[in-house]
């Protein structure tokens, strides 16, 4: 099992005298094998939630479990892809992917074979011998995805992985992720600021407001998805108004007046 469960999770940070309540009584069930996106304005706790899944941080109260097991620290069952590629500049693409497998117990030969197969799956066989500075941003991000998937994680955590890519490369990366997820339905938690991206990729979308997931949408469209259909646009509009309502709620909670 690799479902992700948040059960009444609170996360508070202390900054000087100030306490920041980043997650409030947040409960959520991400099903095994689904592609789940989180949307919401800046500061609503999306990255905080991802960090708890990844085990980079601990909840102040409540529980986070993966496959029924409480998350206490990072582990090879949860792979992370960040917005900025985090490749080792002195290693080739192949070695960067293989490096993620160091602690798997696989022999060096097996690690390299698996890394080569994973690079092929993201369309980068020809670039296996290149170092990160010889790769475009989109290619670097694909190496990062290959490194994450080569670990055969139970959960894939992605924090705005395509935000820095130009529109065309971003579209290619989205198509790749859809394709990979259909081949290997790894439970995926994906943060984005783009409603369209969430609608193109996800099985379900959680909208965050005031430190919790205020609403979850099912995305009923078959792949490949068409962002120009009336149904797609209706759902886009509905999610947009839900996010706007969340912004108003946050501002009221913070004591803003219009
Ligand atoms: N390590 C930290 N120390 C103090 N405050 C933090 C820390 N991490 C997050 N916060 C605060 O917690 C709140 C939620 O932050 P978080 O980064 O999770 O939001 P987000 O929805 O991911 O925002 P963005 O879309 O801008 O990335 C914010 O008020 C943020 O300033």
TrEMBL record:
Keywords for this protein: ATP-binding, Nucleotide-binding, Transport
Sequence ranges assigned to domain ABC transporter in this UniProt record: 4-235
CDD domains named among the record's database cross-references: ABC_NrtD_SsuB_transporters (cd03293)
Entry annotated with the keyword Transport: yes
Keyword Transport in record: yes
GO molecular function: ATP binding; ATP hydrolysis activity
InterPro entries tied to this protein: AAA+_ATPase, ABC_transporter-like_ATP-bd, ABC_transporter-like_CS, ABC_transporter_ATP-bind, P-loop_NTPase
Pfam family, one: ABC_tran
Protein name, UniProt field: ABC transporter ATP-binding protein
Organism expressing this protein natively: Nocardioides acrostichi
Lineage: Bacteria, Bacillati, Actinomycetota, Actinomycetes, Propionibacteriales
